[in-house]
Design goal:
Structural class: alpha+beta
Helix content: 25-40%
Oligomer: single chain
Strand content: 15-25%
Strand order of the largest sheet: 6-7-18-10-21-8
Number of strands: 21
Number of helices: 16
Low-confidence stretches: 39-80
Radius of gyration: 27 Å
Largest sheet: 6 strands, mixed
């Protein structure tokens, strides 16, 4: 591996015949004192191993031999350096495991003795361990469940009388908030960290005290500035522009641009890669508005609970692809995939049950679903499972009507509906507030609204007006990880919902 982290060889270079002769534990100073390497000490080995094979080309290994070394080392008598005791060290980033092999581990190397030595950072090995307990522990930390929901965290804080958590969540019904200047001008590094923590650990956050649009020559700059602060750039602008305005119009091209109810959904589900984060800046809100509250629900936490309550119905939504469509003048897009995406669970080895797989994505957008294209034998089962899951995601649905229409047991329908009611966040945004949420994890929607106009006042002349933008999930996640690294902090980041495990070690 070279300093940028790129690999200089592939797993195919390793011959699989090398065995460990001895193993030693050294302090990181070993790199400088014996090998003359110092530039890699700052990396701490928290992401990449430091495996040095002294050839003329100075190969820094990328971890290709880590799996082989683990397997072979288990079959050898390997003695750690007796002069170093690491038993009381939680952070082992300052210690190295030095392995001496009976032959070069790679076909790329010649047989000189220096090529029979590999060096790994112990903290790196600990972070990337793949023994069964480590794999299971990692999954529990990253797979989104009810315990990861910000509503559940808020309720738990109240139960446990955690005054700090209650204080930072109480103003916005469980969502953490941060001041606009703390994000844009980075007046407080802690403020920026609170914001990014909330976005990735909770799935959403509120930015408060943004400038009033009356004082801005270009109101779109407010939301775009926040978007660029967390993601580097805005994304997904081909259909609606880099920024877009959500308000009721007479010639609406989208149900969002009306005053009607907007059921919980993800935006742009017909893209192969949906927007990662959505930002909605409340530019104005009538003081006498009736309805119009924004709603959020954690669909990945809901899917996790759905598997517990109704495993057979859950299984159906992992198998059959839905069709997501955008078909209007200037837009003809479609994408097909199941509503719930699993990654197989190989934690226990041997045979595995597909339905025990880790939930890494949920795809849900009822307003933008096209014709179902599956065998007729499966259609009834699909719609039954769909209706059941929708009870958890949309608290406006009636469990009795669902039970009567689909044959779902009424007690189950009630449990599913209760989850949806208890897990839905509802809040009327105030001018100057910006709600930012993970579009791949959180469903968002809006209550139906009206603005009485019986008397002409300044309030009735104001409209419900939100200004929106998107950022890419990868760029935003990268920024968060870079901030954590710069602050020398570790987080167990839950799966973000983009179809991948959150596999990067803390």
């Amino acid at each position: 591996m070279i300093p940028s982290g790129q690999r200089k060889q592939s797993p195919g270079n390793f011959n699989g015949k090398a065995s460990v002769v001895t193993a030693e534990i050294h302090h990181c100073s070993f790199l400088q004192d014996e090998l003359g390497y110092s530039s890699f000490l700052t990396r701490k080995g928290a992401i990449h191993p430091v495996n040095i094979n002294n050839t003329n080309d100075d190969i820094l290994n990328d971890g290709c031999s880590a799996a082989r070394s683990n397997a072979n080392a288990n079959n050898r008598d390997c003695n750690a350096n007796a002069n170093i005791d690491i038993s009381n060290h939680e952070d082992m980033s300052q210690f190295l495991l030095v392995l001496y092999w009976n032959q070069p581990v790679s076909t790329h190397f010649n047989s000189n003795e220096m090529n029979k030595r590999s060096i790994y950072n112990l903290q790196w090995l600990k972070d990337w361990a793949y023994d069964v307990p480590s794999l299971q522990s990692s999954r529990l930390k990253r797979e989104v469940s009810v315990e990861h929901s910000f509503i559940h965290k808020y309720k738990r804080a109240i139960e446990e009388k955690d005054q700090f958590d209650i204080h930072r969540r109480a103003t916005h019904k469980g969502l953490a908030s941060v001041d606009y200047d703390d994000v844009v001008n980075q007046l407080s590094q802690d403020g920026l960290l609170v914001f990014l923590d909330a976005l990735f650990l909770d799935g959403a956050a509120i930015v408060k005290n943004s400038p009033l649009i009356d004082n801005e020559s270009n109101p779109d700059n407010i939301v775009s500035t926040i978007g660029k602060a967390i993601g580097g750039s805005l994304s997904h602008g081909s259909l609606y522009g880099d920024t877009f305005h959500v308000k009721s119009t007479t010639d609406a091209i989208n149900v969002a641009y009306t005053s009607q109810e907007l059921c919980p959904h993800q935006d742009l589900a017909y893209y192969e890669s949906k927007p990662g984060f959505q930002l909605l800046h409340c530019a104005s809100m009538p003081s006498n508005i009736i309805g119009g509250e924004s709603i959020l629900i954690d669909c990945m936490a809901a899917a996790h609970k759905f598997r517990q309550l109704a495993p057979e119905l859950f299984a159906t939504l992992t198998k059959f692809p839905a069709t997501f469509v955008k078909d209007r003048e200037g837009a003809r897009m479609t994408f097909s995939r199941p509503h719930i995406l699993l990654q197989p669970d190989y934690c226990s080895g041997g045979e595995h049950d597909v339905l025990d797989g880790e939930i890494v994505g949920v795809h849900w957008a009822p307003p933008f679903e096209g014709p179902l294209r599956i065998h007729p034998d499966y259609v009834e089962a699909y719609y039954r499972a769909y209706a059941a899951f929708e009870l958890m995601l949309d608290d406006a649905k009636c469990p009795l009507a669902c039970s009567q229409a689909t044959g779902i047991d009424s007690s189950l329908a009630t449990k599913l509906s209760d989850f949806g009611r208890d897990s839905t966040w509802q809040y009327l945004l105030n001018p100057g507030e910006i709600i930012v949420f993970n579009n791949t994890r959180m469903l968002h929607g809006r209550r139906k609204f009206e603005v009485p106009k019986c008397v002409k006042t300044e309030a009735t002349m104001t409209e419900r007006h939100l200004i929106g933008a998107y950022t890419n999930i990868d760029d935003t996640l990268n920024h968060y990880r870079v901030v954590l690294n710069e602050m020398d902090l570790h987080r167990h980041i839950p799966n973000v919902g983009n179809g991948s495990q959150s596999v990067l070690a803390p």
